[in-house]
Amino acid sequence: MQSLATHAALRGLSRERLGFEIAQEALLRDPTNVKDCLKTLRRFGFAAAIQLECPARTQDLADLRELVDRAHAMGAVATAGNIAERSLVQQLSNLGVAAVSGPAIAAPMGLQVLTGFIGKPERWYAAMRAQSL
Questions:
Q1: Which single residue of 46, 78, 98, 120 could bond 71 by disulfide (Cβ 3.0 to 4.6 Å)?
Q2: CA–CA distance from 45 to each of 14, 17, 18, 48, 82 (Å)?
Q3: What is the pLDDT of residues 28-52, one digit of tens each?
Q4: Which residues are CB-neighbours of 31 under 8 A, at least 6 positions away?
């Protein structure tokens, strides 16, 4: 971990902007190890999140609440990936999920397209509006 922190510093990368996501499976399998890993990441100044597997249906969200609470109790944010339904985004936010990714947000794109997409918020808003129609 120290060598990663040193490498980031030498490249001028802010450790607060370089984050790690720990898979939900790890949290379920070995919560003590995840807690220790999160402490280590924070000690070196890195951001950390627990990446949750989001259910395909809104009816199945109740089980995520416990996992979100566990992530928060360990000092990590909760994120959710592969979100395919736009209707899930607000519900996940209400559960305490800090960030989402997946086709409901934007289709996969190459680095050049991504750079333009991020650099122009109006494109992001247009994509969000188009997907909600």
A1: 78
A2: 9, 10, 9, 10, 27
A3: 999 999 999 999 888 888 888 899 8
A4: 70, 74
